[in-house]
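Researcher: Structure for this, please.
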Amino acid sequence: MQKRAIFGIFVLFGLALIYNFWPSPTASEPKAARISVPVVTTPQTTKSGSADESSFNDEVLSAKEKESTQSDSESMDAFRQWFSEESGRLEDMGPMSPEYLESLSNRAASLADAEQAELVKIARNLSEPAQKKILAVYMLSLGKSGTLQSLTDFIEAPLQAEPDADPHSPEDAKRVQEKSLKIMAIEALVEQAKTDPQARSLLERSMENIADPYLRNYAKRKLTELTH
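Model: Predicted structure, token format:
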């Protein structure tokens, strides 16, 4: 029940700040191209069978590397598909069962490094739909100690929208949206810092690396509140 309440507050806060004035998304980024590993063939020699054996071993190793690369690529494709479907649920905002929230939390706890990097990428992509960006930050906050570094990486990443845009312009709205997501991430890190020394250490470090003055002061204020 507590997780459900936290989820509701998190998403509603994000939607209130972001969703109502989010511009129509453009086409999402293309999926990453699969990496092919070239087969390394050892030149044949006439001295002994060692060159043949070396060539065979290289070919076997290369085949295993290609199989692993293909498996990783397919795994990422499956993750992107799953994440896209889950983010679509935020559009409805209907009641979410404790069982569903528990499964979401379990999935966040098992995020691989590549999946965490994908979530950071989604959260920073100005053209992604609001619900995907909100869920990306939320998933990083759910991962607890396993995703703390990725959550901090997102907080410290520089803002990308035009800083000197005209007030109320599309670029200005993107800037506000970016800051709103950063605030959500800072709040999640602060919440974990209440009981996790690692989170507190990362929060303290982030204040030295956040370039935007408003976000840096916001993080400082939150850290001060933790000590009083």
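Researcher: Any notable elements?
Model: Residues 50 and 114 are 38 Å apart (CA to CA). The chain is about 65% helix and 0% strand.
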